[in-house]
Amino acid sequence: MAIKKQYLKSKPICKVTFTVPAEDAKEVAVVGDFNNWNAKNSNLKKLKNGTFKGVLDLEKDNTYEFRYLVDGNYINDEQADSYKWNDFANTENGVLNL
């Protein structure tokens, strides 16, 4: 998995590219507090090589909790900036520092 951050000079936005290798998966989405944990608007597109990829514009100078939803199963990105325990989900979420 990979996370790429590109900060815009003209706006307080960071373009975050999420890449998830999941050849056997049918659907992958990135969910977090930036989209109210809603997978409907955050599906990643499957590329020919089996990798899922997508870009989100997120406000910089913020911290976001997130996870991937791969065919209905939540997983963390090993390249997250850090991890934070979530009592509601009873697990750790990845943290993205912008």
TrEMBL record:
Glycoside hydrolase family 13 N-terminal domain span: 15-82
InterPro entries: Glyco_hydro_13_N, Ig-like_fold, Ig_E-set
Record-linked Gene3D superfamilies: Immunoglobulins
Superkingdom of the organism of origin: Bacteria
Name assigned to this protein: Isoamylase early set domain-containing protein
Organism: Lutibacter aestuarii
Species classification: Bacteria, Pseudomonadati, Bacteroidota, Flavobacteriia, Flavobacteriales
